[in-house]
Structure formats: structure tokens, C-alpha cells
From TrEMBL, chain A:
It comes from Halomonas cupida. Keywords: Cell membrane, Membrane, Transmembrane, Transmembrane helix. This is Monosaccharide ABC transporter membrane protein, CUT2 family (TC 3.A.1.2.-). Signal peptide: none annotated. One of its GO terms (cellular component) is plasma membrane. Belongs to the binding-protein-dependent transport system permease family. AraH/RbsC subfamily. The lineage of its organism: Bacteria, Pseudomonadati, Pseudomonadota, Gammaproteobacteria, Oceanospirillales.
From TrEMBL, chain B:
It comes from Halomonas cupida. CDD domains: ABC_Carb_Monos_I, ABC_Carb_Monos_II. GO terms for molecular function: ATP binding; ATP hydrolysis activity. It holds the Pfam family ABC_tran. This is Ribose transport system ATP-binding protein. Residues 5-241, 259-502 form the ABC transporter domain. InterPro entries: AAA+_ATPase (IPR003593), ABC_carbohydrate_import_ATPase (IPR050107), ABC_transporter-like_ATP-bd (IPR003439), ABC_transporter-like_CS (IPR017871), P-loop_NTPase (IPR027417). Residues 514-527 have a biased composition (Polar residues). GO terms for cellular component: plasma membrane.
Length: 332, 527
């Protein structure tokens, strides 16, 4: 089910429409409950500081989750997003810390960012090719980069932590606009584009049709293979962007840690947000809310002194709950 | 002599639907017995009742002298009934040997499997069936045909007295069919009976001794194959009068109707790897050409070839006088071909998308400015079709899955009409659609034709072809064997053409003679 419908017609108040609204308000209600709960028990929750911290943290999850949603909408899955984050995150400092980078800091920073996105895109093309041209199962196809991508990142950096001081690049992680972290705005911008693409463009329609019923879509003339290719490519691009943000926040790139377990957070956010693992839905707003829920749960537990291990269990419980709700309301 | 299997008066009901009513089947030891009938005649249900998948509601089954009531398929297997399903229940990654001996592997001292002996046993069983392959290789390395033979070998190794084969030749090529027949003959020599379910009537004359015909869940007749002509089989299956079939030769009807317009599409001796052996047909503008044939005759395969879903292995097609060879559905659509597929749920609708999104799926390029869909134009177009085809929806953004079958079909029809096709292929357009919607759909097709469109209409409904089509091309075993013209087309001429076996009409077509002469069948002649 798509997230928006342009210009709801006179039939906007019919039963299917209101059911549709209810389905999409679930994650939002959960988020509001979570915020209310924190306002009551977590000390200093309602502060600008807390908001900033959470937006900074949630942005990377949300960006990766939106890419994941594209892939899930085709009926696939991408396990390599965390590894692609590590790879993109490792390449940037590698380039601007080089001797050329020292001589031309501005130019080389731009080149570094482009190179990182380029590598991420190639990872996505690789995944997309395996899935759409060679018919490899998505989970297997993306497992290849899941394993080798992070390995490659570590080889490139000799397994070292790369620390740097590059204000221009760090703006991506610590910059602010109207008091809100820059990556928060980035999420809003990307979500707006994603919603537009899925509801108003040919690609969006093809995406939902390819995931909803690939056979019927193919017979209706939809270029299903190309749609899958694009979905995996965009997913990897967004993962690359998230990888750079996470490096910029820390002013350091650790190929072993960057984006670790991000694939799970992203899948969880997508599922909590209303994406259907068998494909055919791309509820981007819901997915961003889903990412916020995942992050806020982690924050709530941390702020109240619950150990990280327990937080993982709670996260798993949320995913199970979301899938259960989906099976109740989906009619599938 | 006491028969091996005797089924009498079996009833089976699913909810309110009576699936079997007085089903009968008698199989002698060591005979190959055919079970035939149209789709929905109850063949599969009868087999499932026999093998313990379903429980019967009444009637008697005696197997090997014992009254029996199997509650699980395993019990039927232990009693000596083996079923070779269309979907083989084997393990592709394991060796041929393992698949054959699975569950009763020979053991050595200490409980270890004696692989040497197992391989030897497996080879011997297969050799006994005339199959010589390396039994150590994984099963999946072999063709579907060999896998099927392995499944049979597995049944043989369990001393099955009756082997049930459900459409065993549907995915085999001709040489593989010959090999299967050889195996069936060897089974017969060993005294094993075979229940053979097939849509390919010519095969029955080649391999079977007896045939039982079912219709609407009930027994109709059984015959020794040597006493029967194909026309009688077809008449029994369809529930028509044999004399009608005998008296109406397809050649009684003279000259073709003047073509409605210029020649649009032509196929010459097209063949694909999917049961389409040699089909030829022409479609003119403003003309509805019907494709008739029993199940498995290659009607749908013709549609798949024309729509670019299956590559041609032989023959040519031309469109508007130019050579036409689409590589996929998109290419066919760009050339102005549309296909309303038979399976609406699997190949037609995208259930979760709205009526609007389903309707415009094939014409988005022409509705878009740049990457963006012109939603104004889209809504107008959808409104137009909802109105013109009288599609009943509460709102165009309603998910299509909430619509009735007939309305879903109209949306799909609109999807294709919106592409303004030159040739519209309709595969069973009114199946599973209620009477009212059926007539509306037929009217829509006629309107489209009246505006100069060309239609290739595949239908199992004789009335639909007789009333709708200018000409009907008759398909049989992957070949187009006859063309009948309207006016002059009646149900009995159509049935007669479908049965194809009668000598009176075979003079001008050598292939007809081949099939009427039973012992030397077409397949053997070609092999």
C-alpha cells in the first residue's frame, strides 16, 4: 500500500480509505506513546539536547531504512547495507587524509564524497545484477557484500581507526540548521523525495507493481528487472550516505564498527513502519517513524540504565509485535 | 479374475459442492488404465480419495482383494499404491541412489549404510526399466524426464502393484515421452498396473489397455481401447452425441468468409519448447479469430508465443506485413499486441494496488511528463473506462482485490484497451465471471472489433466461439489442424473437429490419418 494518494477524490470518506488511514497511524501512535512515557519517567527528556542527540542517532537508521524499504518493496532484502556504510565511511578519510588531500582540502573532500557514493553505487549495482539478471536469492546475493564489504573496508584501512579533523566534512555530522542537526533535515528532504517518487512517478508505480505481483507486472510491460536493479542501487547509495554521516559525527572512521548490525535496525524500522516483506508496499513516512521508534526504544532503555543486551531483546520483541500486527491487519 | 482395484459408487463432498458422485474405476492386474475427463471432472479428487489424501463420504474401494480405507497417503503406499505427482517429491541435491533407496537403505554390520550395495541396487532397478545413468550423481543434474523415471524406480523398489501417473508427459519432449512409454511397458511386463491420467488422447491409444471416462464427478463409461474410436471418447468427455460428431465433418463447410479487413497478423508453423509443435493462423483487422482445443492442445502456448513470452524454436510470425519476433512482453506491447492472461490472480491483477493503478499500469509512459505521472490525465482516463465498461467500483482508489471477478476482469480489459492494441489476445476472458458480466465483456470485445481491432479469442466455451468468432482455428496436440468458418459453425462441427479422429474428414490432411491408425502413432512415426 502506498503512503499517499494524490488528491483524494469525493470517495475519500469511504470505508477502504479510513481503514487505510488507521493502518498507517499505528506506528505514529506507538511513537507518541513512547514520547509520552519518556516525558514522564526519563529525566531531562524534554530538552533540546535530547532532541538533538536522538535526531543525530536516528538519521542514519532512517536513511538506510528508506533504502531498505525500496528493496523490500520489490520483495527483496539487502543485508549488505551495514558493510556498504563501512566501505563508504572508510574511503572518505582515506582520500582526504592522503597527501593530495592535504594540498587541496576542499577539492579532495568533494572528490572523497563522490568516490564514496560511487563505490556504494557499484555495490548496489552488483547486488541488483545478481538478483535481477542471475536470479540469485536476495538474501544470498547481498550476503556476499555483507561479508566481503566490511572486510574490504578493513583491508583498505589496515584495520586502523582513522581519525581526522576536516570541518567541511564534519558539517555532515555536526552541522545545524535552525538548531536542528543537519542530518535531520536531510532525512526530511529524502523522505519527501521518496514519497513523491513512490506516489507520483512511473518508477514508483512500477516498484509497487513489481513487488506486488512480479509476474503480472512483467506481463503488463513493466521492466521488472530494471526496477529491481534501481532499487538495490538506490538502497546502497543511501547506505553509503549514512556511512559518511556516521563517520562525520565521530570525526573518525572505524571500519570494524561503522554500520554494524545496521541491516537489522533498517529492516526492523521498515517492518515496524508498515513495509511488507513479500513486497508491494513502500510506506516511507511510516518507515521514518519506525526508525524513530527503534532509536527511541534504545535511548529509553539506555537513559534508564538498562543494559544494551536487554535493549536488543526489547528491539526483537518490537519487531515480533510489528509483524504480528501486520499479519492481523494486512489481509494477507 | 478378480480385479486389482475396484472402486464403486464413491461419493465425496466438499462443503456444499459434490466433487464425486458415483465414481467408479476398475483396474485389472498388470494393465495400463487411462482416466480421462475435462477439467473439473473429478479425476484428481478420485485419485486423492484412493490414496488417502481425502476421505470418501460413501462407496466401496477394494484393492488387492481387501476392502480399504486409507487415512494417510503413507498407508496407501504401504499397501502398494505409488503416486507419481506432477510436482515430484524427490530431493534434487541428493544422489539418484539416495532418492531411490531413501527410507530403506541396505545396512552393513554396525548399522552403516552399505553404499556399494545401494548403488548396485539402484542401478539394477533403473536398468530393469531400461534407464542407464550414473546413480551417484545428484538427481538435479538430470532432466525432468529422468527425474520422473527415478520416481517410478522408487515406486518399483517398493513393490508397488499400482503406479498412478498424473499428467506424466506434460513437461516432456517427444523422445522423453517414448522413453516413458518404454518404462510403462516394462512395468506392465512385471505385472504392475498403471493408472494413467492425461489430456493427450493420442497417448492413450499408444500405451493404454482400458480407459475410464469421467464427467462432472461421475463415471460415464469405460471401454477397452481396442474397441473405441477417439470421436466416442471426446463425445463422452464433453457429454455430446457421437452421431453428431460422426455426421458433421469439418470439410462440409465451404469457402471462408471474406476477411473483415486487411491482413494484420500471421503465424506460419510456429513452434516453441512448450508443447507448441506447429501452429499457423491469420488474423485480419476487424476480425475475431477463435482458438479451440482441448486442454493441453497448445492454445495458451500460441498466445504466449505471440506475446513474446516463449521464444520460437521454429516458424515465423509477421505483423502488418513485417517480420515480427518479440523478445518479451514489453516488446510485444510496444508493437501493439495485448494479452489478457487466463490466470487473473497470478498473471493479471496486482491485488494491493488500486483500480486506477492497475488500469493504467501498461500505459504509464504515455501518461507521464518526464518522470512524473500526469495524475489529472490519469484520473480522466480511468474515469472514462470505468464509465465505458461499466466497472462497478466505489472509487477508483479502491484496492482491486475488493472487486468481484467480473469487475477485476473489466479493469484488466480496460488496461489493455487503453494501450490501443492492434491485436488483442484474450485467454478465457469470461472464465469465473458471472453471466451478467460475461455478456458485458463480450459486448466490449465486439465494440473493440467493430472499431477495427483484431481479436484472438481462446475459449473453452463453445458458444462463445460460435457466436463471437469469424473463424475458429482448431488446435490439437500443439498443432493447428483445422480452420472452421462462420457462418456455418455449430457446436457439433466444433466438437467433431476437436475429436479429429473420424476418417470422413481426414482425406485432405495427412496428420489425421496418422492418428486414426492407432498402432503407428504420430510420435512413433516421427521418432
Amino acid at each position: 500500500m502506498k503512503i499517499t494518494t494524490p488528491t483524494a477524490s469525493s470517495g475519500a470518506t469511504t470505508a477502504p480509505w479510513s481503514r487505510y488511514r488507521l493502518r498507517h497511524s499505528g506506528p505514529l501512535i506507538a511513537l507518541l506513546l513512547l514520547i509520552g512515557f519518556n516525558a514522564l519517567i526519563t529525566p531531562n527528556f524534554l530538552s533540546m539536547q535530547t532532541l538533538s542527540v536522538n535526531i543525530t542517532q536516528v538519521a542514519t537508521i532512517a536513511i538506510v531504512a528508506m533504502g531498505m524499504t525500496l528493496v523490500i518493496a520489490t520483495g527483496g532484502i539487502d543485508l549488505s547495507v551495514g558493510a556498504v556504510m563501512a566501505l563508504a565511511g572508510a574511503i572518505v578519510p582515506l582520500i582526504f587524509l592522503s597527501s593530495a588531500g592535504q594540498s587541496f582540502p576542499v577539492l579532495m573532500t568533494l572528490i572523497a564524497v563522490m568516490a564514496a557514493l560511487g563505490i556504494a553505487m557499484m555495490c548496489g549495482l552488483f547486488n541488483g545484477m545478481l538478483v535481477s539478471r542471475f536470479g540469485v536469492q536476495p538474501i544470498v546475493a547481498t550476503l556476499i557484500l555483507f561479508i566481503s564489504g566490511r572486510g574490504l573496508a578493513q583491508v583498505l584501512t589496515n584495520g586502523n581507526l582513522q581519525t581526522f579533523d576536516n570541518p567541511m566534512f564534519e558539517y555532515l555530522g555536526s552541522g545545524r540548521l535552525l538548531g536542528i542537526p543537519i542530518q535531520g533535515w536531510l532525512v526530511v528532504l529524502l523522505a519527501a523525495i521518496a514519497v513523491f517518487v513512490v506516489s507520483r512517478t512511473r518508477f514508483g508505480r512500477y516498484l509497487l507493481a513489481s513487488g506486488g505481483n512480479p509476474r503480472a507486472a512483467e506481463l503488463a510491460g513493466v521492466p521488472v528487472a530494471r526496477v529491481r536493479m534501481i532499487a538495490y542501487t538506490l538502497c546502497a547509495l543511501l547506505a553509503g550516505l549514512a556511512g559518511m554521516i556516521s563517520v562525520a559525527i565521530n570525526s573518525a572512521s572505524d571500519a570494524a564498527r561503522n554500520g554494524q548490525l545496521m541491516e537489522l535496525d533498517a529492516i526492523a524500522a521498515a517492518v515496524v513502519g508498515g513495509a511488507l516483506l513479500q513486497g508491494g508496499r513502500a510506506p516511507f513516512i511510516g518507515v521514518v517513524i519506525g526508525a524513530a521508534i527503534i532509536q527511541l526504544v534504545r535511548y529509553t532503555l539506555l537513559a534508564n540504565g538498562v543494559p544494551d543486551e536487554v535493549a536488543l531483546i526489547v528491539k526483537a520483541a518490537i519487531i515480533v509485535g510489528a509483524v504480528y500486527l501486520q499479519s492481523l491487519r494486512g489481509g494477507h | 479374475m478378480q480385479p486389482l482395484l475396484n472402486i464403486q459408487g464413491v461419493h465425496k463432498q466438499f462443503g456444499k459442492t459434490l466433487a464425486l458422485e458415483d465414481a467408479r474405476l476398475t483396474i485389472q492386474r498388470g494393465e495400463v488404465h487411462a482416466l480421462i475427463g475435462q477439467n473439473g471432472a473429478g479425476k484428481s479428487t478420485l485419485i486423492k480419495v484412493l490414496t488417502g489424501v481425502h476421505q470418501r463420504d460413501g462407496g466401496d474401494i477394494t484393492f488387492n482383494g481387501q476392502p480399504c480405507q486409507f487415512s494417510r497417503p503413507a498407508q496407501a503406499q504401504d499397501a502398494g499404491i505409488a503416486t507419481i505427482y506432477q510436482e515430484l517429491n524427490l530431493v534434487g541435491l541428493r544422489s539418484v541412489t539416495e532418492n531411490i533407496v531413501m527410507g530403506r537403505e541396505p545396512r552393513r554390520l554396525g548399522g552403516f549404510i552399505d553404499w556399494k550395495l545401494a548403488h548396485q541396487q539402484a542401478s539394477e532397478i533403473l536398468a530393469g526399466l531400461g534407464v542407464n545413468i550414473d546413480v551417484r550423481r545428484p538427481l538435479e543434474e538430470y532432466s525432468t524426464a529422468i527425474q520422473q523415471l527415478v520416481a517410478i524406480a522408487r515406486a518399483v523398489s517398493r513393490d508397488a502393484m499400482l503406479v498412478i501417473m498424473d499428467e506424466p508427459t506434460s513437461s516432456l519432449d517427444e523422445s522423453e515421452v517414448l522413453q516413458l512409454f518404454e518404462v510403462i511397458r516394462r512395468l506392465q511386463q512385471r505385472g504392475t498396473a498403471v493408472l494413467y491420467v492425461s489430456h493427450f488422447l493420442d497417448e492413450l491409444f499408444e500405451i493404454c489397455n482400458h480407459v475410464t471416462i469421467m464427467r462432472n464427478g461421475a463415471w460415464v463409461a469405460d471401454h477397452a481401447i481396442s474397441d473405441i474410436r477417439k470421436a466416442v471418447l471426446v463425445a463422452d468427455m464433453l457429454g455430446k452425441d457421437v452421431s453428431d460428431i460422426e455426421t458433421h465433418g469439418s470439410t462440409d463447410f465451404g469457402g471462408e468468409l471474406e476477411p473483415a479487413g486487411e491482413l494484420l497478423f500471421e503465424a506460419r508453423d510456429i513452434a516453441t519448447r512448450r508443447h507448441l509443435r506447429s501452429a499457423s493462423l491469420e488474423v485480419h483487422r476487424g476480425e475475431i479469430v477463435g482458438l479451440a482445443g482441448l486442454l493441453g492442445s497448445g492454445r495458451t502456448e500460441v498466445a504466449r508465443a505471440v506475446f513474446g513470452m516463449d521464444a520460437l524454436s521454429d516458424g515465423q510470425m509477421s505483423l502488418e506485413g513485417a517480420s515480427y519476433h518479440p523478445t518479451n512482453a514489453s516488446a510485444a506491447i510496444r508493437q501493439g499486441i495485448a494479452l489478457l492472461a487466463e490466470d487473473r490472480k497470478r498473471e493479471g491483477i496486482v491485488a494491493d494496488l488500486s483500480v486506477r493503478e492497475n488500469l493504467t499500469l501498461s500505459i504509464l509512459p504515455s501518461l507521464s511528463a518526464g518522470v512524473q505521472i500526469d495524475s489529472e490525465a490519469e484520473r480522466k482516463l480511468v474515469e472514462h473506462y470505468i464509465e465505458a465498461l461499466q466497472i462497478k467500483v466505489s472509487d477508483m482508489d479502491q484496492p482491486i482485490r475488493e472487486l468481484s471477478g467480473g469487475n477485476q476482469q473489466k479493469v484488466l480489459l480496460a488496461r489493455w484497451l487503453a494501450t490501443e492494441p492492434q491485436l488483442l489476445i484474450l485467454d478465457e476472458p469470461t472464465r469465473g465471471v458471472d453471466i451478467g458480466a460475461r455478456q458485458e465483456i463480450q459486448r466490449i470485445i465486439q465494440d473493440y472489433r467493430a472499431q477495427g481491432g483484431a481479436v484472438l479469442l481462446i475459449s473453452s466455451e463453445f458458444e462463445e466461439l460460435i457466436e463471437g468468432a469469424h473463424r475458429v482455428v482448431v488446435m490439437h496436440e500443439g498443432r493447428s489442424i483445422d480452420t472452421l468458418s462462420n457462418p456455418g459453425l455449430t457446436e457439433s462441427t466444433l466438437v467433431a473437429a476437436l475429436s479429429r479422429g473420424q476418417p470422413s474428414t481426414s482425406g485432405d490432411d495427412h496428420r489425421m490419418q496418422e492418428t486414426s491408425a492407432r498402432p503407428s502413432t504420430p510420435r512413433e512415426t516421427q521418432a
